[in-house]
Amino acid sequence: MSNCAVAFESRVKDAGAVVDLKIFSIKNKNRKEDLVYEYYYHKERNYSEYLQLFTDGSKDPQTEGTGAAVVVSSLQTEISERTSDYLSL
Fold first, then answer.
1. How far is 22 from 63, CA to CA, in rounded Å?
2. Domain tally for the chain?
3. Is the pLDDT confidence value at 18 over 60?
4. Disulfide: which of 2, 14, 23, 57 matches 68 by Cβ 3.0-4.6 Å?
């Protein structure tokens, strides 16, 4: 596991949350596993009862316009919003 991942995991644990970084350990072992397959297998085996959501943010470097989005596939929900200009992402 990289130093960055270890530092991140430490900060999150201090906040009372749990972050599973097992996929990083698989990746860092330079094994030949298909990481996409490993991710989905690990997710289904350990977290099938959890709600999976994806987030993203973007910033146009020319106009400084920003936006954010959330997708929850299992609920067929997508939310995207334009945010205030000049936000830091």
1. 39
2. 2
3. yes
4. 57
Whether residue 71 lies inside any domain: the answer is yes
Average pLDDT of the chain? 77
From 42, 46, 50, 87, select the one nearest 68 (Cα to Cα): 87
Residues 8 and 32 in one domain: yes
89 within some domain: no
Could you tell me if 38 and 61 lie in one domain?
Answer: no
Domain membership of residue 79 as a residue range: 51-84
Q: Give CA separation, 31 vs 2, 3, 22, 23, 85, in Å.
A: 16, 20, 14, 12, 43
- pLDDT value for 49: 85
